[in-house]
Write a structure and sequence with these properties.
31 helices; alpha+beta; 4-stranded antiparallel sheet; Multidrug efflux transporter AcrB transmembrane fold; 20 strands
């Protein structure tokens, strides 16, 4: 691992060439990058209704409908009706248009003096005012036309354009939108207001706003990042590093997307901002480690040597945490790839590749840059003239904004009962609200309420009916089933429920058309707006229609009927409930012999909202499991795995609690918050745990180790968390609601994670002792020392190293008094290197009892039972020894009972050997005295 981490320092030219070559190759893929804002990316691949939907769409026509809204205070004039007719024909000429419905081809059926008049509302432009008024009256008279093609006041009309999408054209929606705009633009001046709403408009506005977001958010993120890093790290060099690494990683990510045909979508728009901000966290940790290394270097050393040593210092202390955090952050994004929605999957690929690339670039390039151009002075720490140079670094060495935050965090962490007493009820409260979180997957809901598209959609719904369309399809096995009165009545009853329910705007069916004819056959009596009571009447009434009038509502064999429902519900939770109620009612009305299917593109989009919850749970569970296993292995204990999860579960509970509390839905944007928050927040947690494991090697006092850990990690933890928070807050300026919500919730998650890491985690750490796997494997212990020591008898090298790392290493110099005769202590010592003499002072005389060498154990009796030391121990040379404090070992070994059992057995063996040796000496003494 060290070879990889130091590769950039050891092979600077080769490293630069590798990165440059990969960047050039990936850069060539940027030209193949495409944008996808279609509704298809919001539909689950596993939706069971997709096949049924395609079949119904082929028979009854597409629900992909664009509505042209036309308003004029005086609509019914020759000039405006002429412009409206030309607009209708221009739209019909478009190659992708399946059909156009407007006042020029919708049928008006009306009784006129005992005669039934069946004709289109407008058959060309009326010749005079009388014909114009008659056409207006016909439009406003028909209940099938009002609310669909004409407003109640007659000032607004609609042209419905059914579109057949070309699946081979990835830019179809953009082309369709522009073609429709070109068709209606020449006639726009004739009216007060003309606009189109429908999938092409939604996708076009999404794409336009996506690029607007990129143009705004990327420089804004860079500015926020630069300002934050300058404030906290106080180095002009600091912002340069993340700018370079993030730019290169974005080229890698988007270039690979181009090669693999993965499009940019609405979520991908935030990838540059995420990479800039998230990628800077490791850069900040590395720079903070480098600046810390400068404090340990010789101030008189040459500049090149100071940079090299400081770089090696950061690699030595941050190598493993840097790799772990890169892996976990990448996993946090990649876990979203489990979603069935391609929008989320494509985002997961883009983000995870970008973050993984950023990690590789950071680990290879940053050490190279620091070793060549790194600053030579740290403004984060007080200089030697400001403090006692003999003192150890602590939180008093830190000044600036970090010191203020650290002061608060340390004060809170000093009251563990209060911290736990506040944390538990807060989590319970937010956890309860979390269960109230709803889901939403509607594309219109992605826009902010003041967006022109949202305003136009609502305007259409207020004056006519909503733009959203779905079908209620009924199928009977009987021939001519929907010529029978009882089945037509079922259609009418379903329509009656829809209108009375009030949640949907309008509905049209075959029964409505026949009921209208029946009413007119009875002199326009509203009470006779009912279905005909015989099949003969149905056949008679059908004569008033052409097949094109009914092809959207009934099949040619009359075995299948279609109810077209329009609505303006853009909340997936509300729509799901309304559709579920409607489906149940429609099935009950239809009876067991008629199969009912509710299908539509917007319903499939709504159904995918449920997959968001499923994917979110799976992603979070997978990521937490991976982190738990990985951290348990790294710290050789399940306690390490649990500790790594606690500060990362807390932000999730808080975020989902806030979503439930403030009715923020789980949508494609907010659905990614949890796993991304875990992937990012684990960064500081890993650095904290790694630092604590290192500090625990320097002192047996856990509280002191925790204090040093928090002080040492304060600068990178606080600075990166603030930078992340600021970076996510930038997303509040996005044109999309889902991205703004994602940014706000992620910012809250970052602050919560920081509090958890600097307040809650230290409280938990104070109760445990961690040993890193890498420390165990890299610890150098002589084989002879292991084989010859009774203390480690029957223990594997791994167990021996772990036991050693759970102790405290104490250095001694020649002449040092290691143990005082008559003192009381519970410490046992194991000599790693050097030698010492054991002597007894009695009556002013000193008697040397033994000489201790490497592998010798002393103080084992005091370790087992507190008592006075019976002899002095003095160092004969420089060396190191392990200090095993009885109370500390007892606490630490609770996590490793198997090692504790072997260690205690070996201590008993040593005591037994000592006792046997003492007994032998006493026997020899008495024997000599007796002779």
């Amino acid at each position: 691992m060290q070879n990889f981490l130091t590769f950039g320092v050891r092979h600077r030219t080769l490293t630069a060439l590798i990165i440059a070559l990969v960047t050039i190759v990936c850069g060539m893929g940027l030209g193949k990058l495409r944008v996808d804002t279609s509704f298809d990316s919001l539909i689950s691949d596993s939706d069971p209704t997709k096949i049924i939907y395609e079949k119904i769409k082929d028979e009854f026509g597409s629900d992909n409908t664009t509505i042209i809204y036309v308003r004029s205070a005086n609509l019914w004039t020759e000039e405006r009706i002429g412009a409206l007719e030309n607009m209708h024909f221009a739209l019909e000429d478009l190659p992708f248009v399946e059909r156009v419905d407007s006042l020029f081809n919708v049928r008006s059926i009306r009784d006129r003096n005992g005669m039934i008049d069946s004709s289109t509302v407008l058959d060309g432009v009326p010749f005079d005012d009388e014909e114009m008024q008659q056409a207006r009256d016909n439009a406003l008279y028909s209940p099938l036309i009002v609310g669909n093609f004409i407003s109640k006041n007659g000032n607004v009309t609609a042209i419905n354009v059914s579109i057949t999408k070309d699946p081979n054209d990835p830019d179809f929606d953009r082309h369709a939108y522009r073609a429709i705009e070109d068709a209606i633009s020449p006639y726009r001046a004739a009216f007060d207001e003309v606009f189109q709403v429908g999938p092409p408009r939604v996708n076009q506005d999404t794409e336009t706003n996506l690029f607007d977001d990129l143009a705004l958010l990327v420089p804004l993120s860079l500015g926020v990042l630069t300002a934050t890093i300058l404030v906290f790290l106080r180095s002009a060099f600091a912002p340069i590093i993340p700018m370079i690494t993030s730019t290169i990683s974005l080229v890698w990510a988007f270039g690979l997307m181009g090669y693999f045909g993965i499009p940019v979508n609405i979520l991908s728009a935030m990838v540059p901002s995420l990479v800039i901000v998230i990628g800077s966290t490791e850069d900040t940790h590395m720079l903070a480690g480098y600046l810390g290394g400068l404090q340990h270097s010789d101030k008189d050393a040459p500049a090149r040597e100071k940079r090299r040593l400081a770089t090696l210092f950061l690699i030595r202390h941050l190598g493993l945490p840097l790799i772990l955090t890169s892996v976990t952050t990448t996993l946090g994004f990649a876990a979203n790839g489990m979603a069935d929605i391609s929008l989320v999957r494509d985002f997961a690929f883009a983000a995870s590749v970008a973050i993984a690339g950023n990690g590789i670039i950071t680990l290879m390039l940053v050490p190279l840059m620091l070793s060549l151009f790194g600053p030579l002075r740290s403004r984060l720490h007080k200089t030697a003239t400001d403090k006692d140079t003999t003192s150890k670094p602590d939180d008093h060495d830190i000044h600036g904004p970090v010191a203020l935050v650290l002061k608060f965090c340390r004060a809170a962490a000093g009251k563990p009962r209060m911290v736990i007493g506040i944390t538990v009820p807060v989590l319970l409260i937010f956890g309860l609200f979390a269960f109230q979180t709803k889901v939403s997957n509607d594309p219109i809901a992605a826009f902010k309420s003041h967006h022109p598209l949202v305003q136009d959609v609502n305007k259409l719904a207020d004056t006519l009916s909503g733009m959203e369309i779905f079908y209620i399809n009924l199928e009977s096995p009987q021939p001519n089933a929907f010529k029978k009165s009882e089945n037509l009545q079922k259609l009418a009853d379903i329509k009656h429920y829809i209108i009375n329910d009030g949640r949907f705007d309008n509905a049209l069916s075959f029964a409505d058309h026949l009921s209208l004819v029946n009413r007119e056959f009875h002199g326009g009596d509203p009470a006779m707006m009912v279905v005909p009571d015989s099949e003969q009447l149905v056949d008679q009434y059908l004569l008033f229609f052409q097949r094109s009038d009914l092809e959207s509502y009934v099949s040619h064999d009359f075995q299948r009927a279609n109810i077209v429902v329009r609505h303006n519900i853009h909340n997936s939770h509300d729509l799901k409930q309304a559709v579920a109620d409607l489906a149940a009612k429609a099935s009950a009305i239809a009876g067991p012999n008629i199969r009912v299917n509710l299908v539509g593109q917007n319903l499939m989009i709504n159904n995918a909202a449920e997959d968001l919850i499923k994917a979110q749970v799976q992603s979070v569970a997978l990521l937490l499991a991976v982190i738990f296993v990985m951290m348990s292995l790294v710290y050789t204990s399940t306690i390490g795995g649990i500790l790594s999860l606690v500060p990362n579960i807390i932000p999730i509970v808080i975020v989902f609690g806030i979503m439930g509390m403030f009715d923020i839905p789980l949508n494609p944007g907010t659905a990614t918050v949890a796993v991304i928050a875990i992937g990012i927040a684990i960064d500081d947690t890993i650095h904290l745990l790694s630092s604590y494991a290192q500090e625990s090697r320097q002192t047996v006092d856990r509280l002191e180790a925790v204090r040093r850990t928090v002080s040492g990690q304060a600068i990178p933890a606080i600075s990166t968390s603030v930078a992340l928070t600021a970076g996510f807050i930038v997303l509040l300026w996005s044109n999309f609601t889902i991205l703004a919500q994602f940014g706000g919730l992620s910012a809250i998650a970052m602050i919560t994670a920081l509090i958890a890491d600097l307040v809650i985690t230290p409280v938990l750490l104070s109760y445990v002792r961690l040993v890193g796997l890498y420390e165990i494997l890299s610890l150098k212990v002589g084989q002879d020392l292991i084989n010859n020591s009774l203390l480690f008898k029957d223990m594997s090298r791994y167990q021996i190293r772990k036991a050693i790392l759970l102790s405290e290493v104490v250095e001694f110099k020649k002449g040092d008094r290691l143990v005082d005769q008559g003192s009381i202590g519970r410490d046992m010592y194991f000599i790693l290197s050097g030698s010492a003499s054991v002597s007894l002072e009695r009556d002013g005389h000193t008697t040397t009892l033994a000489t201790l060498k490497e592998g010798s154990v002393l103080g084992e009796l005091g370790f087992v039972h507190e008592q006075e030391r019976t002899a002095n121990v003095d160092a004969l040379s420089n060396g190191e020894m392990l200090l095993f404090n009885a109370d500390t070992v007892r606490r630490n070994m609770r996590l490793y009972p198997h090692i504790a059992a072997k260690l205690n057995l070996n201590i008993a063996r040593i005591l037994g050997a000592r006792l046997a040796e003492t007994s032998s000496r006493l026997s020899d003494y008495h024997r000599e005295k007796g002779t």
